[in-house]
Amino acid sequence: MEYYDKNTIKKKMNYEIREMQPDDGAKVIKIFEEGIAGGNATFDQTAPSWEAWDQKYFKIARLILEDENENVVGWAALQPISNRDCYKGVAEVSIYLSNVAQGKGLGAMLLQKLILVSEEHGFWMLQAGIFPENQPSLIIHQKFGFRTVGSREKIAQMNGVWRDVVLLERRSKTIGVS
What we know:
The protein has 178 residues and is of the alpha+beta class.
């Protein structure tokens, strides 16, 4: 994707999405930590180790977003919602961008690619739980066919404050339709 940076209008940036590799682990965790610090990405208070992260997410449909200097500036991955066989085609979406990459349309780029890759691997339903304060994420998900199915009011506390979570889902139009 080519992008004109809003801070340096004359500078043109290129971004590439590739498959995540095991040696990306430290960079993935660093970006996750930035999401935690931002306060609207996750209930987690600390990032897991790479080993724990690696166990939590599917081994497939793991994406890395790099800038033209091969700096990792984002990632996307899917995690199972259940270990029951009947839910093998349902996954929860996680997309994280570094602070320097936010507000540039890159989350949309990652989500679009993640949807395509998920369908290549037979997923028929993607879901997401997003804080209502994270409006950019809600807008991007809705842009790509996610619909709001509800809200979990005061589902958990974060730093002593009860937080809501908006639940969204996207049903594939090509996988599992028969």
